[in-house]
Amino acid sequence: YFLSAVVGGRTWLEPLAAVVPNLQFFWPADALTQGSTITLGYLATVTLYAACLVGAAMSVAVILFQTRDVG
């Protein structure tokens, strides 16, 4: 994934690579060009991963805006 080449042995960048979401899961073109099929298990995994990303983003938004007067 995109930060693996940047991290490449630099231990101080590994936490950043762990926090940045791996969006490569949402790109099935590589598998399709190699003749693989998209299974229901893959779709379930990608859906769960997307739900976790949305949940994390919403949690950060709630934490940031909980004490603000918006409106």
Word description of this protein:
- The protein has helices at 4-7, 14-19, 29-33, 40-65.
- By secondary structure, the protein is mostly helical.
- The protein is built from four helices and no strands.
- The protein starts with a helix and ends in a 6-residue tail after the last helix.
- It has a domain at 23-71.
- The radius of gyration is 17 Å and the shape is flat.
Mean pLDDT: 82
**Poorly predicted residue ranges:** none
Total strands: 0
Helix/strand-derived category reads: mainly alpha
Helix content: 55-70%
In whole angstroms, how far apart are the ends? 40 Å
Helix-strand layout with pairing:
Blueprint: H1 4-7, H2 14-19, H3 29-33, H4 40-65
Structural key phrases:
4 helices; mainly alpha; single chain; 71 residues
Task: Write a short abstract of this structure.
By secondary structure, this protein is an all-alpha fold. The chain has helices at residues 4-7, 14-19, 29-33, 40-65.
